[in-house]
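Researcher: Here's the sequence for the chain we discussed earlier.
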Amino acid sequence: MPMNQDVRNVCDAAPVIPVIVIRDLAHAKPLAEALVAGGLPSLEVTLRTDCALAAMEEMAKVPGAMVGAGTLRTAADVRRAQNAGASFGVSPGATDVLLDACESLSMPFLPGAATATEAMRLADLGFEVLKFFPAEASGGAPAIKSLASPLPDIKFCPTGGVSPQNAPDYLGAPNVICVGGSWVAQQSMMDAGDWAGIEALAKTAAALSR
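Model: Thanks. This is the structure I predict for it:
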C-alpha cells in the first residue's frame, strides 16, 4: 500500500475540507466556485444523494478545485467516483475490500480511524494521514491530542461534529493537519443561492490557524 502523499497535499491545501451533500445538481458548480474563491480548494462530495456523482463531474470542471468522493464503502463506489472525476477518496472506515480497490485503481485515499489500533494498522499499511471519525463522539480534540505522543508519525483530519466553534481546538492539536466540516456548505444557503455568503464562510474557514 503506497503512502498517501497525494492525500497529504489535499489536506495541506487549506485548514478546512468542506464536507458536501448535493441534493440539487444545479448547485454543484456555483458551490465549487464559491468555495474555491473563498480559499477552500479541496472538496469532499459525499455519496449520499442520487446526483452526487454527477455533481463531482461538474465540480471537477471548476479551475482550482480538487474534488474527492466521501462516504466510500465498496469497490464499486471507488470505481464510480473515479469515473466521475474524483481525484481522491474518503471513507468513515477502512475495510480490506475498500483498501484493495483504492490501491488497484491508484485512488489517493483518506481512510477513517477512531482508535489507536485502527490508526496503527493503517500506518503499517503506509498511510500517514487519516480521517478521525466520528470526531466529537470519539472524544473530540482531547482524544486526538492524546494520540500525538504514542503515534507521532500519524496526522489526522477530524470529521464529525466539527464546527466553527470547536475547529480551532482541533486545529491546535499537533497531529491535526486539517478538519472536515459541513458548515461552509449549508443547505439553506445553497437553496437560497447565497453563493456570496458561502464564499464569505469559506474565507473565514481558510483563515483559521493550524
